[in-house]
Amino acid sequence: MTGIEDFTKPYGLVDKIDAFGYLDYLKSNPDAPRKHGKVVLVTADTPLKASRGEGKTTTTIAMIDALRERGIDAAAVLRQPSMGITAAGSKGGASGGGKASLTHPELIDWGLCGEMGAIEAAQNLLVSFAEKAIDEGKLDTVLVPRVSEVPSRSLRSTIVDAGKNNVAERVVLTPTCELMQIVVLSRSMDELAERVGNMTAGTKDGKGVKFNEFVDLWRITNILTDAVKPARTETVNGSPVYVHGGPFANVSLGIPTLASVEMATALHDVVIVEAGYGADAGAQKWLDIACREFGAQWPSAAIVVTRATTWRDDPDLQWRYPFHVERLENLGIPTFPLINLWEGEDELVDGLKATANELGFRTPIIGNLYRDGGEALAPQLDGFAEAVSVEDIPATPESHRGTPLRDNLNWVSEHAYGVPAERVVEKAGFEASLAEAQELCESVGMNLDDLALVAVKSPATMTDNDALPVQERTVTLKKVEPHTGAGVVHVNLTTSLTTPMPKIV
Amino acid sequence: MTGIEDFTKPYGLVDKIDAFGYLDYLKSNPDAPRKHGKVVLVTADTPLKASRGEGKTTTTIAMIDALRERGIDAAAVLRQPSMGITAAGSKGGASGGGKASLTHPELIDWGLCGEMGAIEAAQNLLVSFAEKAIDEGKLDTVLVPRVSEVPSRSLRSTIVDAGKNNVAERVVLTPTCELMQIVVLSRSMDELAERVGNMTAGTKDGKGVKFNEFVDLWRITNILTDAVKPARTETVNGSPVYVHGGPFANVSLGIPTLASVEMATALHDVVIVEAGYGADAGAQKWLDIACREFGAQWPSAAIVVTRATTWRDDPDLQWRYPFHVERLENLGIPTFPLINLWEGEDELVDGLKATANELGFRTPIIGNLYRDGGEALAPQLDGFAEAVSVEDIPATPESHRGTPLRDNLNWVSEHAYGVPAERVVEKAGFEASLAEAQELCESVGMNLDDLALVAVKSPATMTDNDALPVQERTVTLKKVEPHTGAGVVHVNLTTSLTTPMPKIV
User: Fold this and answer.
1) Residue B1 has pLDDT above 70, yes or no
2) Which of A306, B153, B218, B418 has the fewest CB neighbours in a 10 Å radius?
3) What torsion do the CA atoms of B415, B421, B425, B431 make, to the nearest 10 degrees?
4) SS3 at position B325
């Protein structure tokens, strides 16, 4: 009998799994033993600062340890941390902490098995092929940015071929690039190759040219052979954790690969998916992109993590947390507040529960997860366990495919950020950018409105000014950039500075 | 009992070995069972074109298969191919061919286990730290180039922070960078960290500043945890092959890591080290840098590979092959000509042997290695087997450490390229470049003359014009660039265009 072990190989300190092969096997063998696990999103309040974690990863790890302690076969799927950011010291690791940790955080945080490096090489090779296509007269411009895993402020704007042709370029952070999106959204190597082929390399005589017009796609997929395999590691308590896909739900998808989640639901009863930064970033993207547009499984429950302080102490911003919980509940997703305590905050528990009650939340799950890990949670999970034991997998709401992008932007602003259509404003140049994107898509035989909307925005804000009263908040539309290979369209929102290439701090 | 298996972990299709750990174990346990294998160099005639292989890797593979067929415990150590070059299609794979192949060429050629990607990230992170140091007033200039595994003509000259500070930068191919050199030359993580710390990040007030003055070195070494481990794979006949270290002996070291070779000699009786491109590049670097200056083992024999056509058919260049064989023999290294036949050349064997005899060579080893693999060689290896069965490991000639660089350049020109001191000429600007390098070294407390000389030159030429008569050939000295971390100094030679950043072709 074939099982997941036939698709698994040790890879240093972790295992790597051929998820594409396993999903293909399940497809060809509909009677093979498998589970139909439920997906649970762990997301968070909108962070006050991008770099200050609420503890989503710690929560995810504590949750599966707690569920397994209760006899529930739970696993987690995490995104791979951005090694460049971790190594540069801008941010701590992204593999939990204290009793809610992974066994090999140093590996997970420091490049895992080279997945990001392979994606970087592959996207940069595409740019080199485009450069060669310019030499050969097949392209006039290159539209695909080079990538770097390492952050560097000065790479935001670069000029290559300096002193000769002086071509303006930009470099984006590897985890945010279109090829990473393609890895995240693909369920087979064939699909991946097709998507790479559909990337718009650049333009010739004003019209888009796809990579499949001049690149041997096997050269790219060969580089990605191991990068498309999720890594399996475990918590210090032995609970299974799959790591795959890039972070940065502010400027890209920032969700784990669909293949890794799909594989995990075939292997476990409950699969916790980390979706950060806040619910307006990662969770919004899981729901409105992965589920609605790419067939990922709609969550059977959600957990919205916060810190005791973040939740209550900034009067101007405290609307955000209840907004997120309510939005998810209104979508029919049982949503559990979870408060991750710092040391010395144990005496706040009663007050936090009272506030939660006043706000009409479900009873919050509260614990110091760094100190106590899953043990702090296990006794509090009756309601949660009930929510995920419902037999049916919930239906996914309808796709927005074909909805005019401008209408879809209004829809997201209203539903995800609480700003109605009349206060969605356009920055000078937005119309032109939209028209240009539409034309580019048409020139490669695609319709812009068929692409899934990726909101590009600051991770720390939902609107142009979250601190204003609700009726004064606006959302500004700035710029449109289609990724025809991934099948998404980026729209830059709000007045906050957003760049896919941070500086190291 | 501890053995190499305790330092070995499966890593997908290959094993990775903690060579640093094993070497450390041998050092602390002088009585542990180990071998004292002989090193054999496989090198080649100077290639007519960089991209046209003589078949060094194929020969290396065929040789160990043949030796093992004769009952000799032989292994090979190969450099990792440059995935960017392979993937871009500029060059075929670098893992042998036909019957003289590795079991997983697609893996070896396509990024192996992410070693190159990790080195790329680490060197680029150093550049980002240097950039931050500029912001903080600790540096005025950055001297360390960014790197890319993927070739791209337009990255030869770049401007970053465009539109603001417009900083001129350059990007070099990852396998050629100083950090790769450090990985190649280090025998422990401590040594590696010390060397990274000694890299000259840039200048402040005209003086060099080392990375150890402002970077936490563990951030860099953490990225390299797996990259410093050689991969163990095997030939299709099951002979062990270790792969580690970067190619490009034209513009960098281009030799396998010293740790991987040292480990292999503790495990096997004969260790074949591939040293390309031609003998004037890879072999020269193994002998004059690795052995003389960094304690690598002096070879007990050498094989100089050529094609039947290259050897004899260009009257202007046919001096090069005998020159290489003679040079190696004069160093006391038993040197075996090996002629790798193309299909249809079998009838040339007698003529080739006659020519070799006229030239005073040892009897050449001749075979179609693609078609016949090691079987073509095994019966011809009596003389070779005798050469490597001598008990003593040969002594290494004296170090050139402390010799003035200019004298060392004359010495290399005379011994490796056959051009005496009086015809070693200086291009305008060389003196200034030399003086600047001397000053920079002094400002970081080092002596330029203590650095090992890395000749940077075209792989296809040894002098300014190899086709001229011997008494008219010259070597031109162009530019000096110290790598204080690796402990080497690059000197660009000859008039051929050399760049560490090729275009894709």
Assistant:
1) no
2) B218
3) 100
4) helix
Work out the pLDDT band at A79, boundaries 50, 70, 90: very high
Q: Which CATH code for domain B115-223?
A: 3.30.1510.10
Q: For residue A124, what are the CA distances in angstroms to A131, A173, A375, B120?
A: 10, 12, 45, 13
Given 3.40.50.2000, 3.40.50.300, 3.40.50.1820, 3.40.630.30, which CATH number is that of A35-114+226-389?
A: 3.40.50.300
Q: pLDDT-based confidence at A89, cuts 50/70/90?
A: confident
Distance, CA of B436 to CA of B442 (rounded, Å): 10
Question: Which tens digits make up the pLDDT trace of A111-121?
Answer: 899 999 999 99
Q: Tell if the CB–CB gap between B132 and A219 is shorter than 8 Å.
A: no
Q: Which residues contact A65 (CB under 8 A, 6 or more apart)?
A: A100, A235, A237, A239, A373, A374, A375
CATH superfamily to which A405-493 belongs = Formyltetrahydrofolate synthetase, domain 3 (3.10.410.10)
> Residue A421: CA atoms inside 13 Å, Cβ hemisphere, count?
6
In DSSP terms, A172 is beta-bridged to A147
Question: Smallest Cβ distance to B153: which of A110, A131, A503?
Answer: A131
Burial of A382: CB neighbours in 10 Å, binned 0-12, 13-18, 19+: exposed
Choose the weakest-confidence range: A36-50, A339-353, A465-479.
A36-50
pLDDT tens digits, one per residue of A461-490: 999 999 999 999 999 999 999 999 999 999
Q: What is the DSSP string of A450-479?
A: GSEEEEE--TT-SSS-TTS-GGG--EEEEE
Q: Which one has a higher pLDDT value, A54 or B337?
A: B337
Chain A contact for B49, CB < 8 A?
no
Q: Which of residues 208-267 of A touch B (CB under 8 A)?
A: 216, 219-220, 222-223, 225-226
pLDDT of residue A349: 95
Q: Is the domain B4-114+226-389 a CATH 3.40.50.300 member? A: yes
> Does ipTM come in above 0.90?
yes
Which residues of chain B does A166 touch, with a Cβ-Cβ cutoff of 8 Å? 159
Alpha carbons A82 and A108: distance in angstroms, whole number? 10
CB contacts, 8 Å: A127 with chain B:
150, 152
pLDDT for the residue numbered A93: 63
Output the CA angle B257-B263-B269, nearest 5 degrees: 115
Q: Across the interface, do A121 and B164 touch by the CB < 8 Å criterion? A: no
Confidence (pLDDT) at B81: 86
For A504, the closest of B128, B167, B505 (CB atoms) is B128
What CA–CA distance (Å, rounded) separates A341 from A333? Answer: 24
